[in-house]
Design a protein that fits this description.
With 311 residues, the protein is mainly β. The protein has a single domain, classed as Porin. 0% of the residues lie in helices and 57% in strands. It has no helices and 15 strands. Strand 11 and strand 12 form a beta hairpin.
């Protein structure tokens, strides 16, 4: 069945726990740059997962990873680390809550940056585990690409299979501009299938600022429903100190599974994410994320908290 568009609007205060952290210190996580899957499901960007494996971590929806960059640009690049944490999200209009935990790791070997993650989540009164792995390969000083594959056990909201591939090119004298193009395939656990194309860019300023933007063009079947969505993200900080990222996402969702036989269809949604990654010691720290999501059907707000250690 499909739920009609009438739904009460709500407003959930963002958890700006960031004010309790002292200056200078913390992150820019991949969730800061994610437009998502499942018919450009913008809310996925605020899911418990989120993996940075690169200086240009585009479309990191909670089920994905991405790239690399030159040292002089001080990229938000965590190339050898493990991280674990959990999250809680409250939803309005009787949609319950989301809660769960995650673990991820990244290892660099030569020209390869290998990554893996698992996410155990409770959403819409069902639970499941998502597993993904991928590789980012540096072809030369200007070009690098990434491929990530994932699947799940349980949880109707997780994909049965997901694949994402990206190619990146560095431009300009300091290689401070990175362009990204990618393709994605998403197989839901019902009849829906998505094919998407992504285009975006990342610019590294001489001062500790990074600007990212991107747009994903998605076609969902059955019905060949077109659902474009985009994001803009701004990051401030330096590695070994902190990264602070503010990300805004906006666009259309062709469908969203909220039950075994319940689907929300053809609607606009918006997200706002604040990510704070702080190095507490030389090689370890905290990762805090506050999320806000709005659609005509429900509002979602919450936070995730994790520890990471570099090696």
């Amino acid at each position: 069945m499909t739920i009609p568009h009438q739904a009460r609007r709500g407003f959930v205060a963002m958890i700006l726990f960031l004010s309790t952290a002292s200056v200078p210190s913390t992150l820019a996580q991949d969730s800061a740059t994610s437009v998502s899957a499942g018919s450009v499901k913008l809310d996925e960007g605020s899911s418990i997962s989120a993996t940075v494996t690169s200086s240009n971590p585009e479309p990191a929806s909670p089920r994905q990873v991405g790239g690399d960059l030159s040292r002089q640009l001080e990229p938000k690049q965590l190339t050898n680390y493990i991280e674990a944490g959990g999250a809680y999200m409250a939803l309005t209009n009787g949609f319950g809550y989301w809660a769960g935990g995650y673990g991820r790791g990244v290892v660099t070997r030569g020209n390869n940056i290998w990554n893996a993650e698992f996410n155990s989540e409770h959403e819409f009164r069902d639970s499941g585990v998502y597993l993904a792995a991928g590789d980012t390969y540096n072809f030369n000083t200007d070009w690098y690409g990434s491929l990530t594959l994932g699947s799940s056990v349980g949880g109707f909201f997780w994909p049965r299979f997901r694949g994402d591939g990206f190619i990146n090119k560095k431009w300009m004298g300091r290689k401070q501009l990175v362009s990204t193009f990618g393709f994605g395939y998403y197989m839901a656990k019902d009849a829906h299938r998505d094919h998407s194309f992504f285009a975006g860019s990342t610019y590294y300023f001489t001062k500790p600022w990074i600007l990212e933007e991107g747009i994903r063009f998605n076609v969902s079947n059955p019905g060949s429903v077109f659902s474009p969505a985009g994001f803009v993200a701004v990051t401030h900080g330096r590695k070994q100190q902190y990264y602070l990222t503010l990300r805004a996402g906006f666009g259309k969702e062709a469908y969203q599974l909220v039950g075994q036989t319940v689907t929300l269809t053809d609607f606009e949604s918006q997200t706002l994410t604040v990510t704070w990654r702080r190095w507490v010691g030389t090689n370890w720290g905290l990762n805090l994320v506050g999320d806000y999501y709005h659609s005509p059907f429900y509002v979602r707000g919450g936070a995730s908290f994790g520890f990471y250690r570099e090696f």
